[in-house]
From TrEMBL:
<keyword id="KW-0479">Metal-binding</keyword>
<keyword id="KW-0408">Iron</keyword>
<keyword id="KW-0001">2Fe-2S</keyword>
<dbReference type="InterPro" id="IPR036866">
    <property type="entry name" value="RibonucZ/Hydroxyglut_hydro"/>
</dbReference>
<keyword id="KW-0411">Iron-sulfur</keyword>
<dbReference type="InterPro" id="IPR036922">
    <property type="entry name" value="Rieske_2Fe-2S_sf"/>
</dbReference>
<dbReference type="InterPro" id="IPR057330">
    <property type="entry name" value="SCP2_Rv3818"/>
</dbReference>
<dbReference type="Pfam" id="PF00355">
    <property type="entry name" value="Rieske"/>
</dbReference>
<dbReference type="InterPro" id="IPR017941">
    <property type="entry name" value="Rieske_2Fe-2S"/>
</dbReference>
<dbReference type="GO" id="GO:0051537">
    <property type="term" value="F:2 iron, 2 sulfur cluster binding"/>
</dbReference>
<protein>
    <submittedName>
        <fullName>UDP-MurNAc hydroxylase</fullName>
    </submittedName>
</protein>
<dbReference type="GO" id="GO:0046872">
    <property type="term" value="F:metal ion binding"/>
</dbReference>
<dbReference type="GO" id="GO:0004497">
    <property type="term" value="F:monooxygenase activity"/>
</dbReference>
<dbReference type="Pfam" id="PF25451">
    <property type="entry name" value="SCP2_Rv3818"/>
</dbReference>
<feature type="domain" description="Rieske">
    <location>
        <begin position="461"/>
        <end position="501"/>
    </location>
</feature>
<dbReference type="GO" id="GO:0016705">
    <property type="term" value="F:oxidoreductase activity, acting on paired donors, with incorporation or reduction of molecular oxygen"/>
</dbReference>
<dbReference type="GO" id="GO:0005737">
    <property type="term" value="C:cytoplasm"/>
</dbReference>
């Protein structure tokens, strides 16, 4: 099995039975904020795009690059579709001219012509990607590969049960706006960023240990930030709180925990993988490339400056009545929302900075009141500040996912009173009837579900599944005194009270192992 690195989460897998191109991303994403690093735009995409199969893990724009898919990937390729809850991905592909699809049943091995086998695991929580994320398992002639990319499954046993994996590709770096955009003192940002950076690596080590593959390939990050306004987000300033470490940092950190089987793929690197080992060739020495990272970034910044300026020129739409359009689009969804609206629990304020950089219009999305209106000087728990032009653009194009556009762009600042609230971001990625109804149904189903199984961790009896996204706490749970951390997403719980310390809601069931089991709610202990 031959794997060619094509940048970020992208790779081309070649076997005698066919080729698969995965997640090709080349063009800037999220309001021209994110670019692939190392740069992959100079690869021979006309050749790389001539493949038998195409797999895109999810609709995040650093994975689903519509322009590149339209212009460079063969329309004769069969698209391997994860079993997602909505038809959006297939609809997007059809709009780009693709007509051949294989809808892979979730977690079922499918044998393709010539003996090539694949299995796709689809994750379908509203917080997984833009309504869904996935991983691809591939086998040919006894060689097995898992392309986990960004996905965060609760366990990898479904893949391990299919046989020993020889190549494991997975994310290790950040792909979020936290904590950089929050209006906090720099010392607090650094502390929170360091915590997140450590959690990212801890999660990665856990996945690597679970699968025990022969070779580990760090992929799906980090992006680089070439706009002067965002340049500080690149991990080139010695900031221990930067959440975007690169592949060379991965190798160094992996070595600290005993990891010796890591392989970096630069764009154009080729790994020949067999059951006996892996041989890799690179377009230039990996160590030398990362030693000159700043120079590479500065060269990219100058080369892409015109691209960024052209994108910025397209954002302003002064003809858009922002308040009126937000009312028209969002109020019907507020009327239908039960779980998300209740979860947000209060008004969310958007401060929109005008073209001159000084005038500010404040608009409130009032979840309890089910309306969008002008700000009336009331106290709000959640506030976002961004350029009016960005919201104009979102409304102009009818964007249904403000997370997969505005928030991931990092072109905003945020403030909140109290804990993180996942429902705020879940709602703003569900600005369509189809997405909202799916998310409401998912939360309804999980609200009613009872997790009856308990486990014992360091003197505490706790429910086995994390209240957040059902991670197995027997594997991801770490107890420190009276506090439990789920390492899959870093959520924390106070075991004495059951209270979630990370977000609103999500109470955990727990008691000390040497204490009497508490009675169910509403019943007296006997």
């Amino acid at each position: 099995m031959r794997v060619t690195g094509t940048g970020h989460a992208s790779m081309r897998i070649d076997t005698p039975a066919g080729s698969i191109l995965c997640d090709p991303w080349v063009n800037p994403a999220y309001f021209a904020s994110w670019f692939p690093f190392p740069d992959n735009s100079l690869l021979d995409w006309a050749t790389l795009g001539q493949v038998d199969y195409l797999y895109v893990s999810h609709l995040h724009r650093d994975h689903f690059d519509a322009k590149h898919l339209r212009d460079f990937v063969s329309k004769d390729a069969t698209v391997l579709l994860p079993e997602f809850p909505t038809s959006e991905m297939e609809d997007e592909f059809r709009g780009l001219g693709f007509t051949k699809f294989l809808k892979a049943p979730n977690e079922q091995v499918v044998e393709l012509p010539g003996g090539l086998k694949i299995m796709i695991q689809a994750l379908t929580s509203p917080t997984d990607g833009p309504i869904g994320d996935s991983s691809l398992w591939v086998e040919y002639d006894g060689v097995r590969l898992l392309n986990q990319n960004d996905a965060r499954p609760t366990d990898l046993s479904v893949f391990a049960e299919l046989g020993h994996v020889h190549a494991h590709m997975l994310q290790f770096s950040g792909a979020i706006w936290y904590p950089m955009v929050y209006e906090l003192p720099q010392a607090a940002k650094t502390a929170f960023g360091k915590q997140k950076r450590d959690r990212q690596f801890d999660r990665t080590w856990r996945y690597i240990d679970d699968l025990k593959a022969d070779h580990v390939f760090p992929i799906a990050g980090p992006p680089c930030f070439l706009d002067d306004e965002l340049w500080q987000f690149n991990d080139i300033f010695g900031d221990e709180g930067n959440i975007f470490p690169d592949q060379s940092v991965f190798l160094a950190e992996y070595a600290k925990v005993g990891g010796t089987n890591g392989i970096v793929l630069l764009p154009g690197s080729v790994a020949e993988i067999t059951t006996e080992g892996a041989t890799t060739t690179h377009p230039q020495p990996v160590e030398e490339f990362f030693a000159n990272k700043v120079a590479h970034l500065e060269e990219m910044r100058e080369r892409k400056r015109g691209v960024i300026e052209a994108e910025k020129a397209s954002w302003r739409h002064p003809e858009v009545d922002v308040l009126g359009e937000m009312k028209r689009r969002i109020e019907p969804l507020l009327d239908e929302s039960i779980y998300l609206a209740k979860g947000v629990g209060g008004p969310v304020r958007f401060d929109l900075v005008g073209y001159d950089g000084s005038e500010v219009e404040s608009i409130v999305v009032d979840f309890p009141g089910k309306e969008v209106r002008s700000y009336a000087d009331e106290k709000v728990r959640y506030r976002f500040r961004t350029e009016r032009a960005l919201i104009e653009h979102l409304l102009h194009i009818g964007e249904v996912d403000w997370v997969n556009s505005l928030f991931l762009s990092c072109r905003f600042s945020a403030a909140r009173i109290g804990q993180y609230n996942e429902f705020v971001y879940a709602f703003f990625k569900c600005l369509s009837e189809e997405r909202l109804q799916y998310a409401e149904g998912w939360y309804d189903e999980h609200e009613r579900a009872v997790d009856a199984e308990d486990i014992t961790l360091d003197g505490w009896v706790v429910q086995r599944r994390c209240p957040h996204l059902k991670a197995d706490l027997s594997r991801f749970g770490i107890v420190d005194g009276d506090q439990l951390t789920c390492q899959l997403h870093g959520w924390k719980f106070d075991l004495a009270s059951g209270r979630c310390l990370t977000s609103v809601g999500h109470k955990i069931r727990a008691h000390r192992a040497d204490a009497e089991t508490p009675a169910p709610a509403g019943e007296a202990a006997i």
